[in-house]
Prior knowledge:
Blueprint: E1 2-6, H1 11-23, E2 26-31, E3 46-49, H2 55-62, E4 68-71, H3 78-83, H4 85-105, E5 110-114, H5 139-158, E6 161-165
Helix pairs in contact: 2-4, 4-5
Amino acid sequence: MRVLLFGGAGYIGTHVALAFVNRGDTVGIYDNLSSGFKENLLPETLFYQGDILDTTRLNEVLSLGWDAVVHLAAFKAAGESMTNPAKYSINNITGSLNIIIGCTNNNIQNFVLSSSAAVYGEPTYVPIDENHPTNPENYYGYTKLAIERHLEWFSKLKGLHYASLRYFNAAGY
Length: 173
């Protein structure tokens, strides 16, 4: 399988890339290196430097025949999202729409979103499961929920297959 990781030079992306490489997949990394590092890239991966807001570069890379994408490219500081929501709107929502539209325009039918448990907000019951109500308490969580809703619509309208991974903490405790 040929899989393209957006934000693949970051902490989580590096581990996702390693899992795909260990499976024998061809892995591309698309990253602007704003928070990821070129040193994190595995030699077995293909690297494409670019930003998810640059639709020309984005579509150039998406047209290279990928079977699936994994979207890990987002700003993630909940506190900052409350003081600078425009930054989060532009990157997380607009950038994600650019990827989603680029996938449908390039016949990429499989999409995995690195979402967040921040979409849930304050728990109304525990343990939290996928049926838990979504009520984000910060703008970061809202952007992740908005992306999920866009994916739901593109699934209905364009046949895009997707999964949203709503994890609480990628590592540690």
